[in-house]
Design a protein that fits this description.
The structure holds 3 protein chains of 3 kinds.
Chain A lengths: L2 H10 L4 E5 L6 E4 L4 H10 L7 E9 L7 E8 L6 E8 L5 E3 L9 H11 L2 E3 L36
Parallel strand pairs in A: 2-5, 6-7
Antiparallel strand pairs in A: 1-2, 3-4, 4-5
Chain B lengths: L6 H6 L6 H12 L4 E5 L3 H8 L23 E5 L7 H10 L5 E5 L1 H5 L20 E3 L6 H16 L24
Parallel strand pairs in B: 1-2, 2-3, 3-4
Chain C lengths: L2 H5 L11 E5 L11 E7 L2 E8 L7 H5 L8 H5 L6 H16 L5 H29 L3 H22 L8 E2 L2 E2 L7 H23 L3 H7 L7 H6 L4 H6 L6 H4 L20 H25 L17 H6 L1 H12 L7 E9 L2 E9 L7 E5 L1 H7 L1 H5 L4 H10 L4 H5 L1
Antiparallel strand pairs in C: 1-2, 2-3, 4-5, 6-7, 7-8
Classes of the chains: A alpha/beta, B alpha/beta, C mainly alpha.
Amino acid sequence: MSKIVLDKILRKFPDDIINSHNYLGNETVIIKKEALLKVCAFIKDNRQLMIDMLVDLTCVDYPEEAERFMMVYHFYSTENKYRIRIKASVSEEDPYIDSITKLWKTANWPEREVYDMYGVKFNDHPDLTRLLMYEGFEGHPLRKDYPITKRQPIIGPLN
Amino acid sequence: MGVKNTGIENILGESVVLTRADSIINWARKWSLFQFPFVTACCGMEFMSVYGPHYDAARFGAEYPRFSPRQADLLFVVGTISHKQLPILKNVYDQMSDPKWVISFGACASSGGFYNNYATVQGIDTVIPVDVYIPGCPPRPEAIMDAIMKLQDKIQNEKYESRKSYPDLGKNNKQGGGDE
Amino acid sequence: MTENKITNRNAGDLDSSTMHINMGPSHPAMHGVVNIQVDIDGENVVDSKLEIGYLHRGFEKSAEYKTYKQVIPYTDRLNYVSPLLNNFGYTLAVEKMLGIDVPRRTKFIRVIMGELSRLTDHLTCNAAVMMENGGFTPFLYYMKAREYLYALIEKVTGARLTVNYSRIGGLRNDLPEGFKEETLKIFTDVEEIIADVDKMVTRNRIFMDRWKDTGILSREDAIAWNITGPVGRASGFDYDVRRDHPYFVYDELEFEVPIGKHGDTYDRYLVRDEEMHQSISIVRQALELIPKGPISVDDPRITMPSKTKVYNSIEGMMTNFKLVIEGVKVPAGEIYSFTEAGNGELGYYIVSDGTGKPYRVRLKPPCFYNTQALSSMIKGNTIADIIPIFGSINMIAGELDR
C-alpha cells in the first residue's frame, strides 16, 4: 500500500540505501546514518508523499553486529495514509546520530529516552538529559549486557 | 510499633494511668483515621473503588483524604514504588507527625510484585516501617476493608506502657521518626 | 505605591522576575507521579518543564526475559484503566507475525470487551477531571457506573482490573451464559448515570467557564506533536484507527467518530462523553451479530490443549510441556501493529529472533506524546487552569513511564 514511498526513496537516494524489504506489508528501508536528515526532509517536503507525522522513534540492540544500535523511525502521512519505517545503524565507538527535532518537534522526548536507555547521543538536540531514570544512574538499562536485577538505589538497601 | 512524643502522653507524664484511658484514647484514634493516599499505579483504581459508593470506607471514619502529610496519620502506600520515587516517599513519611501508621497496599508496595528488575524497590519495608500488608495485584476492595479493620484492632491493643515518653520537647527537640 | 504603579504593571517600572514553582511528584492532582516545574509571572504560566519517570517499571526489559504468553500480564498494567485494549493490541501483533487469523467469534468478543474497557477508561478520565474541578458528586456517580462494568468484566474474565484475558490465537475462556441479557440490563443503568451527569455538568456555568478556551491545541499542533485519540480529535484531527485502518470486525459495525472544533478542555470532555455513547452502541450491535463457534485457533503449536487431552494422551502432555517451557515459536522478523486504545493509537513494535521469547518489545504509548505537548498547552493560562488541562489529556503513568 505504501510502495510508492519506498520507490521514491530508492530512486532519489540510491547510494545511501543499504537494504529494503516489505516483510508483512511493512515497508522498510535501511539507510546510512549520515543520510538521515536528507531522507527525512525529503519525505516531509515531497508533495506527493506528504509525510507529516512521526509516529515513533526507538532503538534495538544487536550486540553481535559491528554497528550495535539500530535506530528505528516510523512515519505516517495523514492525507494519503502511507506508512514507512526507516532504520539506521549506529556503532558503539561512534554513538552519534543527527537529531530530527528540527523537522518534528515531537522527537524531543523519544530521543531523550533512547539516550537514557541505550546511550546513543543526538547532535543538535535541545536538551539531552535522562528522561526515565534518575540523575546519578550509571549505565544504560536496555542494553543487552546490562543485567536486569542490577539495582542502584538512591536510598535504602539493594534488595 | 510504639507511639511516642504525642501530646496526651506528655501531659500525663509518668503518672499512673487506668486502662480506661488507654481504651478511650485508642478508640478515638482508630475511628478517626486521616489517610494520606500516596497513589502511584494500578492499585489506585481499587483505592478509588473502596472510597466510592459500593464499598464505602467512610463508615470507618476514614472518609476524606488529607492531601497534606502534616495533617494525616495513616499513610497508604498504593502502587509500585520505583527507586526514583523512594526519596519522596521517605520525605512524606518523615513529615507526618506521631502517632502514625503505614499500610502497604498491593503486591508491588509490599515486595516489589513481579517487577524484579533494576527500577523497582523490592518492598517499602526496606526503608519505612509497615503495619499492615495487603497482598493482591490489585487487592479486592473487601481485602482493603479487612486490612483497615486489622489495623483498627492493632491500634485498639496498643498499651500505654509500650509508649516511651521523651524529655520535654522544649529543651530537647527530638523529631519523631517511627520505631526501629 | 500609588494607584498608577499597581495597575500599570507592564509599564516596566516594577522590577519583577518570574517565580519558579514545583508541582511535585506527590501531588493529588498530578495523578501521583509527574513533576511539573512552572515559571509563573503573577498567576500566568510563562514556561514549564515536565519531569517524568517516577513509575518506570522496566516493562520493555522484562519482556525480553519472558515468553510471548508471559508478557501478557505485563501489558495489563500499562494502561491500567483499560487493560483489555492493551491485551488485545499485543496479541494482535503477535498473531500478525505468526500469520494466523483468529476465529470470527473471537473477533466479536474482542470488540465487545475492548469497548467495555474503553468505557471504563473514559468514565475514569472524566470523573477525575470533574473531581479536580471541585465536583465530587459526578465523580461518585461515575464510580458507581464503573463498578457495574467491573462486576460484568469479572464475570467474564475472573478479575476486575488486571484481567490477562487475551491469548495468542484466541482467548482464555468463552463468554458465560446470560452475558447478553446482563450487559443490556447494565447498559440501561450506565446510560442513566451518564445522562444524569450530563444534566449536572455539560451546561453548567462553572464548568463551562473553567473549561472553555483553556488549553487550546490547534489541529496543526496536534499533528506536529503526534497526538491521536480523543485529544487529537477534539482539536479537529479526524483520525480513528477503527475507521481508517479497521481491524477485528470494526468494518462491519456502524459508529460515528466525534470531532471537536476548538481544541480546548471543554471539547475534550465532550468528545469523551460522546465516545461513551458510541461504545455502548457498538457493543449493542456486536451482541446481535456475534456468531457461535470456537474461540481459539486449532493449531497445537500455538494453542494450549485442553486438560483432558493433557492428562490422557502423550501428544497432549508433550504439547503442553513445550508450549509452557519454550513458548510459541514466532518466525524471525519485525512488525509494527497498531490499534485504537483509550488515548489514541497504541502501537506495538515487536522484533523476533525465531525463539519463544521476544527480542525486543516496544510500546508506542499514546499518552507519552500527549504529555509532551502539555508545556505548550498550559503556556499563557493561569495556574488554576493547569489542573483541568492536565486532567483532560488523560495521562496514565503506567503507560507514560512503562
